[in-house]
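Board notes (copied after class):
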Amino acid sequence: MKKLFLIPVLLISFSCQPKSKTKKEVAVEPIPEKVLLSQEDLQQYETAYFASGCFWCVEAIFESVKGVKEVVSGYSGGPEKNPTYEQVAYGRTRHAEAVKVYYDPEIISFQKLVKVFFGSHDPTSLNRQGPDRGAQYRSIAFYETKEEKKIIDDYITLLVSEGVYDRPIVTEVEKFDVFYGAEDYHQDYERKNPNNSYIKAVSIPRYNRFKENFKDYLKEDAH
């Protein structure tokens, strides 16, 4: 059965863009401890890069997938060096909010990560996901090798041939260049800030829709 992942547009002022109290927001309930892997540990895994809207949402989705060991929120797709959140979120660079996914290819393939990417956002929405507007929220599937590019291109061709969407796919397929990690307070943002208004209204519903459609992909603690 074909499943179309569309993010509803909210007629309210929720946005992933920075606000004056962003850094001070904390969850009311205790935050479960997360096992942190060192850079040495992470070097044994493969990496993949995607952009599909607010990275708070995208990070949480990929973190829930079996075989994914770590996800880092950051910026990619533009020429500017060392961009900041304020610069990217307000469209002052050509970067998009993106994620770096560390994964174990013996558990999950790049092809399946591409399916997660397309199945967790609306790839027909130009420069927008949900309430977040601007090129910094555009859809990009990055590739590092010719094989990865073919996997992405072939999957797009499949989606089009099966008529999964009633509008053209506008996802950019882009050769990966550089990734800049976002500021520390953005990492694991959804997990640490479940009571944030944007997280409650946009990010968590998006995550739940993904879980409903990708039950077989989820880690045990993500069900």
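Comment from the instructor: Confidence is low (pLDDT under 50) at residues 9-13, 20-28. Residues 46-222 form a domain with the Peptide Methionine Sulfoxide Reductase; Chain A fold (CATH 3.30.1060.10).
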